Amino acid sequence: MSLTIKPAAETDILRILQIRDAAFAQDPWQRIMKPNLLPPHSRVKAIERFRKEYGHDPAVHFLVVEDKDTDEIVAVAKWNIYKTERPESDWKKEPEIEWDEGTNNAAITFFLNGIFRRRHKNIGGKAHLALDMLDTHPDHQRKGAGRQLVKWGTDIADEAGLPIYLEATPSGLKLYRSMGFVDIESFDIDMAAWGGQGIHRHICMVRPAKA
To answer: Residue 139 gets which letter from DSSP?
Structure first.
């Protein structure tokens, strides 16, 4: 399999949604947040969110990995690059998001508020890179696509002397730790409070700036 990394195009949005859906199809917390998920082409609000971010925010970079043997996109990442410190009025705000039908708004809001609070505490307005999204289709996992997308950001961070911040699920820890990320705290959710079972864990990680 020959993999190529490139900027995402607006026409890739539906494929990006398909990959995200497939990547988290077996995740019990995702099923709590999105119990009756509409197919990608019907998720008007999700499509519009991607369109608003794509090409309109210079800090945001959507990337995809394409299998050149099949011309199929197999992985996607969203990197945010902040090369200078930002004022609190810019970063300390929780965006108002409209969700499509089939989502559990209370569960999603609870989750995102927890993520944002930890981002505010752990990195705030410092100059840094943030890996905001990394998804590989299950049929193509463990083949190097995710590593390519992470390396794209680590190369930029190393050249600029900046740290990188992200939140990982346990399945991504081995990759991130192998590329210099360290755990700083976890965000544990008792899924029983939401009608599920067990604990869902996200791990906040940082890759320190290279001197």
So the answer is: G
Per-residue pLDDT of the chain (211 residues; tens, 9 = 90+): 699 999 999 999 999 999 999 999 999 999 999 999 888 888 999 888 888 887 778 999 999 999 999 999 999 999 999 999 999 988 887 667 888 888 999 999 999 999 999 999 999 999 999 999 999 999 999 899 999 999 999 999 999 999 999 999 999 999 999 999 999 999 999 999 999 999 999 999 999 998 7
Q: What is the separation of C-alpha 54 from the centre of its chain, rounded to a whole number of angstroms?
A: 15
Cα separation of 181 and 183, whole Å?
7
> What is the end-to-end Cα distance of the chain in Å, rounded?
36
**Backbone dihedral angles phi then psi of residue 115, each to the nearest 5 degrees:** -65, -45
The answer to whether 63 and 77 have CB atoms below 8 angstroms apart is: yes
CA distances 78 to 50, 74, 108, 149, 194, Å, are: 11, 14, 19, 9, 28
CA dihedral 31, 33, 37, 43 (to 10 degrees): -150
